[in-house]
Known about the structure:
By secondary structure, this protein is an alpha/beta fold. The protein contains 15 helices and 18 strands. A hairpin with a 6-residue loop joins strand 9 (238-242) and strand 10 (249-252). The longest helix is centred in the C-terminal third of the chain and has 26 residues, at 433-458. The two termini are 23 Å apart.
Amino acid sequence: MTAARFGTDGIRGVVGSSLTEADAANLGRALAQRFPDAQVLVGRDTRPSGPALSAALVRALRSGGASVIDLGVLPTPGLAFLVMREPNITLGVVVTASHNPVEYNGLKVISRDGRKVADSIEREIEVLMESTSGAISKGATVDAPPDHDERAALLRGHYIEHLREVAEEEVPGSGAAPLTILVDAAHGAGSSYALDALAATGATVKPLSASVGVINDAVGATNPAALAVAVRERGADAGIALDGDADRCVVVDERGRPVDGDVLIALLALDRQERRLAGADRVVATVLTNTAIERRLTAAGISLVRTQVGDRHVAEELRRSGAGFGGEKSGHLLFPEHSPTGDGIMSAIHLVGLLVRSKQPLSVLVQALPLDPQVQSSVAVGQAGAQGILENPEFIALVQEQSVLLSAAGGRLVVRASGTEPLLRIMGEAPDATIVQQVVERVAALASRLDRKSTRLNS
């Protein structure tokens, strides 16, 4: 049996197939070995598979000598905040597959500084998981302490209070009272936290739906269509869509139109500069951030630092450079003065503050920041695998050729492997939308052909 492996965002897979309770137990045993006598916080999102995976993880941790507080349903950024806040906590583990469909789940390890553990630590944990794969924990399972539920509730309360404090700081005196905000929490971990936190701004905050549903099923940050319709129909000033573990925030304006994530980064960056916040002259974003945004920020005297795709890379650069704000086009926004990691609820609070200070509709703010045409495509890859295609000489030659073509047109091409799914990601960008579309289609077509060829050869 091969132990599960870490990707760019923890261990992730289809429950019962590429991710099992045995994998969760293996991780628990490995963590107990790597961090002797550890004190661990465990949280999860609302997937039906979450309780069983969490239980297997917790049992293995306790059997290995770790002290564990199972916090139940909690946003990933909430657990990250608590791991950093509590002085005796060694690490945290979140059972979540974030924005992925309900059949997926995952295991994300959070270090003492509230960020994902370093790649080198993940490799050590993988070695330990390989050595214990299929093993049976020795010794009796250690029961939770008698005051476990009270301690868990107290810690969850600390995160709730933290969100309220940020809301009152960002929008003092219930300044958002004239605003109505709709919230789509994707039926996920943020469902019982977001409404209360945003209400602390003074805004009228309403859920997209009062019913309980399936996490990420036609809702949330990856599918804000229903939210867009509801914002128009109910006359709201904005809509907020979170993903399953509430570390991502996607915004819909009052006309029901999704706000591009790059535009949101620029709006918040310009607002922070106007308020003269620390580090406001620098912003960290990824290679996917639109070049038009970079030009606009540069014109305002704000430098843009680019990283690889992934909020962990943005967080690392923020820590290294001292920049005060950063984010990803996908909706992961990081405010280091408040949290060590992306927090969708925190991002929503900052958006409300922006609307209060600007005294303008969100659509008007967005119109002032036009983007260069950008096309993104995802190619599902099987036998060849994304990395195999990226290393194929024919594919390398085409990517180089098309990169030169886009560069001559004032644009750029980014091709990469997804860190969470078996996909090849392709992004093209240039002032001429027709050229961009043609380039992305050519690259995607070759990737698909190479994958089909590999499948035939290996069948």
